[in-house]
């Protein structure tokens, strides 16, 4: 009799947990933006713009702006100023990527210097074959 009651209690607890987790799951599987702001917000007040594409859980494109104070506001993606802000943000991100790539990529001359650096007498012939330049054939007199 006690085991039957214990089984019932466990079953009820599991059903409650399943109901709670289902409630949380369904909350995450919907659009984040219910109300969208169409009024202009100055770019000095906006810290970040996040564009969330449409998906199976939300058929609309969502644009969320994080203000410098930390407040998040949903913006209307069809508003002209929001489109301009997204374009400006994308251009800035592309420019930053190009600058980072240019800064991080070593030049061809630096690559050759790393590959054909100063060699001691034992590797001088290997260096001449690998680099094929006059610098490799010079010998340094100690």
TrEMBL record:
One of its GO terms (cellular component) is extracellular space. The keyword Kinase does not apply. Residues 28-89 form the Chemokine interleukin-8-like domain. The keyword Aminoacyl-tRNA synthetase does not apply. Residues 1-23 form the signal peptide. Pfam families: IL8 (PF00048). Belongs to the intercrine alpha (chemokine CxC) family. Its main location: secreted. GO terms for biological process: defense response; immune response. It comes from Megalops atlanticus. Residues 108-142 have a biased composition (Polar residues). This is C-X-C motif chemokine. It comes from the Eukaryota. Residues 95-142 are annotated as: Disordered. PROSITE patterns: SMALL_CYTOKINES_CXC. Residues 95-106 have a biased composition (Basic and acidic residues).
């Amino acid at each position: 009799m006690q085991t039957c009651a214990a089984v019932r209690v466990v079953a009820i607890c599991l059903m409650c947990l399943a109901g709670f987790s289902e409630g949380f799951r369904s909350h995450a599987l919907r659009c984040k933006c219910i109300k969208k702001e169409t009024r202009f917000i100055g770019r000095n007040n906006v810290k970040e713009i996040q564009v969330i594409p449409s998906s199976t859980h939300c058929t609309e494109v969502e644009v969320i702006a994080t203000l410098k104070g930390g407040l998040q506001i949903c913006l209307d993606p069809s508003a002209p100023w929001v489109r301009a802000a997204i374009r400006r943000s994308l251009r800035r991100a592309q420019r930053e990527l190009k600058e980072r790539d240019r800064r991080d990529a070593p030049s061809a001359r630096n690559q050759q210097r790393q590959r054909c650096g100063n060699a001691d007498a034992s590797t001088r012939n290997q260096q001449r074959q690998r680099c094929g330049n006059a610098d490799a054939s010079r010998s340094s007199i100690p």
